[in-house]
UniProtKB/TrEMBL annotation:
Source superkingdom: Bacteria
Keywords: Membrane, Transmembrane, Transmembrane helix
Domain DUF112: 21-441
Protein name: TctA family transporter
Key word Cytoplasm present: no
Transmembrane segments: 21-46, 52-71, 109-132, 138-159, 171-189, 201-224, 322-345, 357-384, 391-410, 416-446, 467-492
Length: 506
């Protein structure tokens, strides 16, 4: 414990230096702004600002880049809640209940509560890093491809419960999402799949383009058809209307705790990250809810769980990156690149050989999260008042930002056409009452599931029993089987109840 106190003191002395404080503020401020603009995301912002880090010392460079990374999660929920346009892919699931809260005149409440959820999730993630970074890193390293595959299967089964309505529709959308995820170059053979000869699809479909189209452009099309429904009651943007009720706080405690736990777990696993954590947290929250019909209609639990999950995952994703030298995402790979450029080798020895950098970075997370609360809470009233801008002025500007944001990710104009395609698809899905969230999760998890399945088959030389023989994968698959059995039994029970009611009425 004395060693921990000494490390904390060392980290605070590093993070509180004027130079590092300045770059921490710059990072979280830019992250918030980038998160609010639909389509940009942390990867685009960090890529554009990465050359600046060449002229900074390693600690200041990492503090600034990390601030952008977790700052986008705070800013990303703004567009998700107010406009039904995910600021980042990790915020897409927040649209499901955040936007209905806005239409109910509770957009300010949703923004304030997600700021609290983000702070709580980030704080607990930081505590886990401080206390258990080496242990968690070793535990994450023990996960093999078979274990990852089992987790992905569990996630896809849970995906069918994300939206209300027919479970078959949910599963069908999961399959469609997996099909879209298969587009591009095969990771093992290098052959092109489902590209129809278009070189632009060789790298696959952009997740940002898909999310922006399904949620953002489709919402704009719906709004154009029904402009009168978008009128905002001015009384809903007063300070009193933005105050959460006691029931809001009571309903939020459990989801924040569960979401933080899920996010912390998935954040430590290389290759998963905040997007997977947010969708998993939402699916779990809907499973444990007593009244699932509230979800998708403005349930406070539907925004608290995913927002706390993606922010805790943002923090714990640094554990495999710094302690193992294994980046779990392209963004984390840039963080790793910043270290290597400055001549610092990531790995288990980083915590001892570069103690000032490691603990200074962790302590900067505390400072950055506090700065984000200070920045975001006063701005809630401003963001909500954006809804008072006339529809014919607001949404063309939003559409412009979507196109700019999607284009800047890969500097590829083809991605803009993809946004148009998925916007049309999202609108058709709305007309047919097909859920969009399972499609998005299938798109995220499907390629990961395929990759780990094929890798597990290569390692085991084609032995399917490897998924059952490994303790972690065997347990997860057993839980998945129980969920399927329970779901089938529940559906059968509902069917029998309806038959009895029909017989009684007859």
């Amino acid at each position: 414990m004395d060693q921990l106190y000494g490390n904390v003191a060392l980290g605070l002395s590093t993070a509180l230096s004027l130079n590092n404080l300045f770059y921490c503020f710059v990072g979280v401020f830019l992250g918030t702004v980038v998160g609010v603009i639909p389509g940009l995301g942390a990867l685009a912002a960090i890529s554009m600002l990465f050359p600046i880090t060449f002229h900074l010392d390693a600690t200041a460079a990492l503090i600034m880049l990390a601030g952008i990374w977790y700052g986008t999660s705070y800013g990303g929920n703004t567009a998700s809640i107010l406009l039904n346009i995910p600021g980042t892919p990790a915020n897409a699931v927040t649209c499901l209940d955040g936007y209905p809260m806005t239409k109910q005149g509770r957009g300010g409440v949703a923004l304030l509560m997600t700021t609290v959820a983000s702070f709580v999730g980030g704080t607990i993630g930081i505590i886990l890093m401080m206390l258990f970074a080496p242990t968690i890193a070793a535990y994450a390293l023990s996960f093999g491809s078979a274990d990852y595959f089992a987790l992905m299967v569990l996630g896809l089964v849970a995906a069918s419960t994300i939206s209300d309505g027919s479970a078959m529709k949910g599963l069908a959308m999961v399959v469609l999402g997996i099909a879209f995820g298969c587009v591009g170059m095969d990771i093992y053979s290098g052959g092109q799949r489902f590209t129809f000869g278009w070189l632009e699809l060789a790298d696959g479909i952009s997740l940002v383009a898909l999310a922006m189209g399904l949620f953002g452009v489709s919402e704009i099309i719906v709004g154009i058809r029904n402009v009168s429904a978008n009128a905002i009651d001015r009384s809903s943007v007063t300070l009193r209307a933005m105050k959460p009720t006691k029931d809001d706080w009571r309903r939020s405690i459990g989801p924040m705790a569960r979401g933080t736990g899920i996010g912390s777990f998935f954040g430590t696993l290389p290759g998963t990250g905040p997007s997977v954590a947010a969708f998993m947290a939402y699916a779990v929250e809907k499973r444990v809810a007593k009244d699932r019909s509230r979800f998708g209609k403005g349930a406070i639990e539907g925004i608290m769980a995913p927002e706390s999950a993606n922010n805790s995952a943002d923090q714990t994703s640094f554990i495999p990156t710094l302690a193992l030298g294994i980046p779990g995402s392209p963004t984390m790979a840039l963080m790793l690149g910043a270290l290597i450029i400055h001549g610092i080798a990531p790995g288990p020895q980083l915590m001892t050989e570069q103690a000032s950098l490691f603990w200074g970075l962790i302590m900067s997370f505390w400072i950055g999260n506090l700065l984000l609360v200070v920045l975001n809470v006063p701005l809630i009233g401003l963001w909500v008042r954006l809804l008072l801008i006339p529809y014919h002025l607001l949404y063309p500007a939003v559409l412009m930002f979507i196109c700019i944001g999607v284009y800047t990710v890969n500097n590829n104009p083809f991605d803009v056409w993809l946004v148009v395609f998925f916007g049309g698809l999202g609108y058709v899905m709305r007309l047919l009452d097909l859920p969009t969230a399972p499609l998005l999760l299938g798109f995220v998890l499907g390629p990961l599931m395929e990759e780990h399945f094929r890798r597990a088959m290569l390692i085991s030389r084609g032995n399917l029993m490897t998924f059952i023989e490994r303790p972690i994968s065997g347990t997860v698959l057993a839980v998945t089987g129980l969920i399927l059995i329970w779901s089938a039994w529940a559906a059968y029970a509902v069917y029998r109840r309806e038959r009895r009611l029909q017989a009684a009425e007859a």
